[in-house]
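Q: Here's a chain of 218 amino acids. Please give me its 3D structure as tokens.
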Amino acid sequence: GDDPLPYGLCVWATGNGPTRVVTDTLKALGADGAQGDAQAWARGRFGVDAWLRVLGAPPGEVFAIGDCAADVVDFAAETKATLPATAQVAAQQGEYLARLLKLGPDYDLAKPEPSRPRGAADDDRRLDELFCDERAGHLVARPFQFLNLGILAYVGDGKALAQVALGDGDLGVKAAGRAAFGLWRSVYISKQVSPRNRLLVIGDWVRTRVFGRDITRF
């Protein structure tokens, strides 16, 4: 009801759920077909193929990335790769999709493997070399593949957790506490979109360190 509930400390603990645009689109796609089958494991998110195309939608017209997209599925191999719901995954998916759409005029995105003849006009050879494989004289866009650059988590009180893999082997760096916090902050600063943002963030950190955090407005 609307009656006030007295409390000393309120801890909000809840999960995340799909937005209305996602649920409405899933209803429009219907329960039949590939998307309906994918909901057995997608659970309210978009089931996508290895090129991030939404299953059941017109091929090459609807894509989904980030938290609204479920695991990337390879139905030919009957396997799926579980991806963490992190900004690192979404950022890599966004970069991949931008490249795929940039090649759109030369590629048929409706095909399972978007491709075009090797001899076609190409104004960006470097992009093709990094992003495509050559098969039977055609350039084929590679499926999305997540590259895990490590996990960083701030836990409060100037401390953090860090786990960074090195190469393809079992070598890696695991740290906790102040050292991990320093690594977390260095990565946070490096990911800012401009020098101006870096200065603003560093300035905020310095003011908080000197004067404390203002909680009067919370």
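Q: Can you summarize the key feature?
A: The mean pLDDT is 80.
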